[in-house]
Amino acid sequence: MLNRRQALSGFAATAAAGALFASSRVAASSPAQADVLPTIIQLPDNWLPEGIAIGRLPFAYFGSRADGSIFRVNLITGEGRVLPTPGPGTPAVGLKLDRLGRLFVAGGTAGDGRVVSALTGDILATFEFTDAESFVNDVVLTDDAAYFTDTRNAVLYVVPLGRLGSVPTGFEPLPLPTDLIGLNGIAETPDRQALLVIQSNPGRLYRVDKSTGDATAVDLAGENLVNGDGLLLDGRTLYAVQNRNNTVAVVRMSRDGTSGTVIERVTDPNFDVPTTVAKFFDRLYLPNARFGASPPATTFTAVAIPVPRP
């Protein structure tokens, strides 16, 4: 019998590649092609980006903190468009794309999470996590659930994914230790048995049990990830964006996620407070949120950098 991961892989080859993105079949397949891909991607004026999601095909999705709309960009050409259905008027922050062409969207100050069609922008499901003061900041997809962080509350919101292809219908709060306030980015451990979450200040990384919410600080040998924002796990390498530092920390993780070694920190002259990170081919893509710009920023970009090779 196929497990969930195998089933999703099979479905992706037909549903995502065939129906969802049939209009664009170009993909990078060699280093020579990657060299000519755009390194600066223009986003719409006043977009207020923070989250990014990329799947197996060369499209990146950027949510708007202004109204929750989604901008889709072809990474081969750099051209993009806002998805036809506008956002709900509340923020879109962290994003993840599943293999069925659905975006899971963290709703920021709205205190919610959404499932959105990556083709049309239609909202397929909304989860009202809390009516208390909150900032639902980021999301990770596992084989079984979507986990959302809340920067203002010591809790994760867990949306079970249910049977293959079904639209999720409910959620459960997963309480965390009370001192875990200020959480931002989230990823799985390399062995996929637990979660990694970043506490932006003072820059600690935690390993969280998926079932109990028990959390232990990851041993980074005295290093910290201050201003930590989006996380991306690639094999055993964790990329941690340090937004106001204009830096991406490259961390080699143990398989169980209990320890990690900061191998290097990379920057780029085009960084302007990058927040989150996604990977396509041999590049990392990061949106510039431009927090704190004076006067307030009205123009925005995303930046592509080579994947660091420690």
Which features characterize this protein?
disordered N terminus, Neuraminidase, mainly beta, four-stranded antiparallel sheet, 24 strands, 7% helix, 310 residues
Question: Rg to the nearest angstrom?
Answer: 18 Å
* Element-by-element helix/strand order: HHEEEEEEEEEEEEEEEEEEEEEEEE
Oligomeric state: single chain
Give me the CATH architecture of the domain at 37-182 and 204-221 and 268-306, please: 6 Propeller
Structural class: mainly beta
Query: Helical residue percent?
Result: under 10%
Instruction: Measure the end-to-end span.
Output: 38 Å
- Strand arrangement in the largest pleated sheet: 1-24-23-22
Mean pLDDT: 91
Number of DSSP strands? Answer: 24
CATH superfamily of the domain at 37-182 and 204-221 and 268-306: TolB, C-terminal domain
| Helix run count | 2
Low-confidence stretches: 1-34
Taking the sheet with the most strands, its summary is: 4 strands, antiparallel
**Which percent band covers the strand fraction?**
35-45%
Dominant shape: globular
- What is the name of the CATH class of the domain at 37-182 and 204-221 and 268-306? Mainly Beta
Q: Remind me, CATH topology of the domain at 37-182 and 204-221 and 268-306? A: Neuraminidase
